[in-house]
Design brief:
The chain is an alpha+beta fold. The protein contains 3 helices and 2 strands; from the N terminus they run αββαα. The chain has one domain. The chain has a two-stranded antiparallel ribbon with strand order 1-2. The protein is elongated and about 80 Å long.
Length: 99
């Protein structure tokens, strides 16, 4: 599989983009374009909280999301496993012996 650039959660939340965790199969889209007036929040009430749920709806163009995921999958090539590498070495040795 293609080696996508890897990020820790605390790194990706500050960088716009589309991220996927293959272990949890969770897709995170970080969009820093919206502006929300911070004055609507009582900052004392939110002390210690990092996030506020704005809506349970997901405002994502599903078709565009699917295109991005397909493009990544199409470009991705499986990485050879150790077993694959061992098989290649054996095949090369067998070919050398036949010559």
């Amino acid at each position: 599989m293609a080696e996508g650039r890897k990020f820790e959660l605390d790194e990706l939340v500050n960088r716009p983009g589309t991220y996927f965790n293959p272990q949890t199969e969770v897709l995170v889209i970080v969009d820093d374009s919206p502006e929300l007036d911070a004055e609507i929040f009582n900052m004392e009430a939110y002390e210690g909280a990092d996030w506020v749920l704005i809506s349970d709806e997901v405002p994502v163009d599903e078709h565009e999301r699917d295109v991005l995921l397909e493009r990544f999958q199409t470009d991705a090539q499986p990485l050879p496993t150790e077993e694959d590498l061992d098989d290649e070495v054996e095949e090369e040795l067998d070919a050398d012996e036949e010559e």
